[in-house]
Write a structure and sequence with these properties.
The protein is mainly beta and 182 residues long. Helix content is 7%, strand content 40%. A six-stranded antiparallel β-sheet has the order 1-2-10-7-12-5, with no helix packed on it. A five-stranded antiparallel β-sheet has the order 9-8-11-6-13, with no helix packed on it. A hairpin with a 6-residue loop joins strand 1 and strand 2 (14-17).
Amino acid sequence: MTYNVKKTNLPEVMILEPKVFVDDRGFFFESFNKHAFYKSTKININFVQDNHSKTEKGTLRGLHYQLVKPQGKLVRVIHGAVFDVAVDLRRSSPNFGKWTGVELSSENKKQLWIPAGFAHGFVAISETAEFLYKTTDYWYPKHERCIEWCDEDIGIKWPISNPNLSNKDLQGMKLRYADVFS
């Protein structure tokens, strides 16, 4: 088994489409297979934590990252739909401050690989969305940072103008003032 891999405008961020077997009983697919992931992406990873969130329509989570012990993330939706975003926060990258976005849904079964060094966020575009993500490092609240979701220097084209935000996300920093990766 391999994934169909589609590149985004940020070369390290990839859309993965698993092979889905459908018949009159429903469907089946491997949501993650380490060997297939490596064969398809040439990235050797070890995941240490799985997260599951449920989000109401219009709620935006992000843009989050960990400055110390950064996390790579493989994300997907098991119910509903989200608009998912990654932002390159590596100052040495030619793509520093650029973003990519993709709709992930339970219908399209797409997954997004977001490597360490990128901020991540999403907004629920269905009534509710259940979101799963695998991470390459543990969550360390003291190392977590947040970039302002609507930072005009990044210019993300969110499909929403007035999202529901947590207190943490309301305090997101502008990229120009944020601690980022070298």
